[in-house]
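Supplementary Methods S3. Input chains for the assembly prediction are listed below.
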Amino acid sequence: MNSLLDRLNPPQLAAVTLPPAHALILAGAGSGKTRVLTTRIAWLISNRQVAPPGVLAVTFTNKAAKEMQTRLAAILPINVRGMWIGTFHGLCNRLLRAHYRDAGLPQLFQILDSADQQASVKRLLKSLNVDDEKFPPRELCHFINAQKEQGLRAAAVEAAFGYTDDWARKRVGLYEAYEAQCQREGVVDFAELLLRSYELLERNEPLRRHYQERFRHILVDEFQDTNKLQYRWLKLLAGGGAALFCVGDDDQSIYAFRGADVGNMADFEREFQVQNLIRLEQNYRSHGNILDAANAIIKNNPSRLGKNLWTEAGSGEPIRIYESYSDGDEARWIVEEIRALVREGHARAEIALLYRSNAQSRALEHALFNAGLPYRVYGGLRFFERAEIKHALAYLRLIANTDDDTAFARVVNFPARGIGARSLENLQDAAKAANSSLHAAIPQVAGAGGVKLAGFAQLIVKLREAAHLPLPELVDHVIELSGLRTHYKNEKEGQERLDNLDELINAAASFVAEEGTPNQDGEITGEFGNDLSSFSSDITPAALVFTETVQPMLASFLAHASLEAGEHQAGEGDDALQLMTVHSAKGLEFNVVFISGLEDGLFPHENSMSEDKGLEEERRLMYVAVTRARQRLYLSFAQTRMLHGQTRYNLPSRFLDEVPDELVKWLTPRAGKGGFAVSSAPTFTSAPRRSESSGGSGFRIGQSVMHAKFGLGVIVNAEGSGTDARVQVNFGHAGMKWLALSVAKLEAA
DNA sequence: GACCACTGGTTTTTT
DNA sequence: ACCAGTGGTC
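Predicted structure tokens for the full assembly:
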């Protein structure tokens, strides 16, 4: 068993073998964080400090949870799938399924993903005759989720903030109405999973005691990404004396924009009087120059817990910086560079192209496509989010729960069966009057619309009669009987959608194979199975009973579809270049990394400047991007870039200035502080449309200029001529200014 | 109910 | 530039 600890460095070893007390592990990028977590669990179990059911391990993504399980299974001779290792949402789902009654939910409650939630809010606004211009569904969802993530119900929002005006009051009212609608429909959104299970544990003392006593060791991955509610959830579960082992890196906190609160790290340290603070600073991933650059960049952030990565590897290659005239030129240069790398023997899959925002992938894809280089873009539409899949799932959801109005509204007229807006309006009115679901209100609708609706109700009855079929057959049956298959067969470009629907049947089959296989004791123990064996049976005996007609696998499969939208994408496994945003690159590593579009306004993003601490988060994002690279790192920027159909002129990113000169090799003449080196004369592309030449002043759009007060800038626009000539200049730090040429003393820079 | 023109809105994203 | 969603017409 000592071999388990053999290859750990001293701080890693210390972390893994800590006594059962609270601990905060500050784990830098590439410092072996996942390894420490899994080894810690394995060590605890093999040293009999805790039995497998006493461990609770939480991650953010399914991928991380799966990786932890796989690694553990390789070390320990136990059934890992029965352990409580999962995402916050997955574990909360498990908790709520087991105690649905105590949580006030129907047994087969459905989970709304973000799109479902928005559709649900939209429907709510419509039924209440609320102007969706005043309350955009998107923003309302954001508001509702933010409140839930603070642990605030609608009633509590008022108590917490009071109402400043009618609009605020109305907004909270809508939150309340949304809660009521979800409750009536028996659906929960993502944030609700968390809040509901938090409230369940908080209010139900025997249940809380049960879990507090059960979990002796709680381990948290990516702790810096937890929001307030998740932290409170952890505190509640650890309230019975469990040891909380939190691993995180404040420098890699890049999700504040969706509620993550790095402050949780400091709070944890203080509130739990953490005596064991361990820093993992030795990096096993990157060469020295890359690490030095990352350290130099992140050093500019004032509020850090403090940490400095080092490596035993040599300094390696310099960081290469390239300036190009346009985004297209940048992409073409990247293609050439990649060709050379591949010739030198680099695997394409080991080369990553990172960018700040998805819109930037277009130019890169264009160039890669023309060059015939295989690539894979991450972050597109996921399998379970495709329209045809969501349609099929909606039918399945109606089998599980006819009150699910979101599912109902989605497919009542898809494929088209002549139920128009008119009939639906009547139905909605009837449902509202009876305070019932849309399905239940069908008999109230008279006329031709009523007949057609009754036909749809009949279809649901037929589908429900098949609910006992094995899951894959049920899915197949639903696709057939609903008319989806026929619909897509008749559609000109429906073949891909048909293939996807077949893939859904396959997914159901493999889900049954993986999750539904009973173990020796005949229990279903997968993440989405109802792991009831682990609960003391006196608490929820009722949870063992399933609705007779509906098989448990269906509910589990639907939860699986919502919680794990799936990275089911083409080209997986091929030797393809990896294209993704910096956000989605977190946790990954590559031999060669290109970070493109390093321009002020893009990266750091202009929207971040107005936000409090926005620039710091952007800098952490840059830190994450840089630390993805093992051997070679390229940074590139362009003077002009097409965005939203307009050419934009940006200055080089301030982050470039933060990389020490001695680590860098400029592939183009070095740009001055905050300006361009290469005068905008394009060397390998046609000149851009120069709308005006600023009244013959000698300045042109795209030119770098120096101003006594504002410093360096780029001319982005011009109007007027002669003494009236004015130019608009982007000064980066100092912002965008209109200057009269006759007054402002501008010099070409 | 199907098709086409117009509008608005585009940071990052998991669950 | 480009998508999605909407409102008009047939």
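The longest helix of chain A spans residues 495-515. The longest strand of chain A covers residues 629-643.
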